[in-house]
Amino acid sequence: WLARWDATAPPGADARPASFHALVKRLAKAARRGTTYPFVVEVDGQFAGQVSVNNIVRGSAQFASIGYWIDQDFAGRGVIPRAVAMVIDHCFFVAGLHRVEICIRPENTNSLRVVEKLGIREIGYAPRFLHIDGEWRDHRIFAITKEEAPHGVLARLEGTPEH
Which one of 1, 84, 89, 131 is most buried, by most CB atoms within 10 A? Predict the structure, then answer.
């Protein structure tokens, strides 16, 4: 389900953490440094997926990228669009970021539906952008700024009237 979308270490790069414990430790350290915000997606008390805010840049940029995944058992229920909307709102209204970006492989139709549901605009194309499933893969780039969702992405997803 996820292997074909999962980032891999290119030749010569450090391998991924060897265990779940090592991954959690690495994410916690990065979160303390303020370079990532890892969020767990939980449905009815069950771990269902993850949304991660990565590559956080402060200063004049106030930018980050977002990645996400959902367990196959929870796919198609609107869980990930809602979770991504909540995380983007956290980025804008709690973390003080101005812009977030989501990069998606062109053939990942499930992920493309997420940005479509959220109304996030496509801004470009990145050839050989990320090492995934053993190869450098192209990605479509989507972005949203705080000004584009002044009342939040979740409100927009839910169709809440603007105040």
Answer: 84
DSSP, res 119: T
Question: What are the tens digits of pLDDT across the range 42-75?
Answer: 999 999 999 999 999 999 999 999 999 999 999 9
- DSSP 8-state assignment for residue 72: G
The contacts of residue 7 (CB under 8 Å, 6+ apart) are 16, 130, 131, 132
Collapsing DSSP states into helix, strand and coil, what is residue 116?
Answer: helix
Does 80 map to a domain? yes
Domain extent, residue 105, equals 3-158
Rounded average pLDDT over 5-23: 71
Distance, in Å, from the CA atom of 78 to the CA atom of 73, rounded to the nearest integer, reads 12
Q: Are the CB atoms for 104 and 1 separated by under 8 Å?
A: no
Closest C-alpha to 139, from 1, 41, 35, 7: 7
CATH of the domain at 138: 3.40.630.30
The closest alpha carbon to 63, from 143, 120, 149, 139, belongs to: 143
Q: Is residue 163 part of a domain?
A: no
Total of domains in the chain: 1
pLDDT in the model for residue 65: 98
